[in-house]
Amino acid sequence: MAITATQIKDLREATGVGFLDCRKALEDANGDFDKAVDFLRERGLAKAAKRADRDASEGVLDIYDHGNGRVGVMVEVNCETDFVARSDAFRTFAHDVALQIAAASPRWVTEDQVPQSELDHEAEIARNRAIEEGKPEKILDRIVEGRLSKFKDETVLLKQPFIKNEDITIEQHLHEAVAAIGENIVIRRFVRWEVGESSN
Questions:
Q1: Could you give the CA distance from residue 181 to residue 190 in angstroms, rounded to a whole number?
Q2: Residues 165 and 133 in one domain
Q3: Which of 15, 37, 150, 159 shows the smallest number of beta carbons within 10 Å?
């Protein structure tokens, strides 16, 4: 059954869960709205979304070095209370994020942090490449959209497949951690250094 954008939008508004999770829930529920909501609640995602507006000002800096000091990562992950910040589950999650950054080299935490200039540049490259490959004019926009989506999946931390379980994204791993720990969790910022890279 084809899932419509309106169905996805309605489910997102009802649960606060991301687009891809809502689409998957609706597909698994054959378009049944109530079953899709139940599916998201069972996975803890709807509950996680309700916590997303709570203040997260405690947390940890996780520092990780990889390859005998060839790659270094520092990431700030926040939660609501000092009690949770000291818990093993929270620290394990923060360390998972640091490992992800070391291995997958994201450039931004969230999709909305990607500068428009970067997207414009990538779109131009994608369009020129499609023209070079002889693709028909009428499908160029779709090709560009697909390549931009792939660019975001590779460069935005929350959209990347989780290196320890590639069936889920880092965003889904974050929602699972929120549901398990019971507090809002925010990946605030990170830096990644690699020996020999330029500083710009």
A1: 22
A2: no
A3: 150
The rounded distance, in Å, linking the Cα atoms of 194 and 62 is: 17
Both structure tokens of 122 = 């990538």
Per-residue pLDDT tens digits for 154-179: 999 999 999 999 999 999 999 999 98
Q: Nearest to residue 166, comparing CAs of 122, 121, 104, 119?
A: 104
Number of domains the chain contains: 3
Q: What is the CATH classification number for the domain harbouring 101?
A: 3.30.479.20
Name the DSSP letter for residue 57.
Answer: -
* Domain of residue 19, residue span: 5-51
Beta-bridge partners for 116: none
Any domain includes 199: no
Q: What is the dihedral of CA 81, 85, 88, 90, to 10 degrees?
A: 90
The tokens describing 132, both together, are 């070079």
Please, are residues 19 and 7 in contact by the beta-carbon 8 Å criterion? no
The answer to whether residues 172 and 92 belong to one domain is yes
Listed in order, strand segments (DSSP E) in the chain are 58-66, 71-79, 161-162, 165-169, 186-194
Task: Please state, in angstroms and rounded to a whole number, the distance separating the CA atoms of residues 98 and 84.
Answer: 18
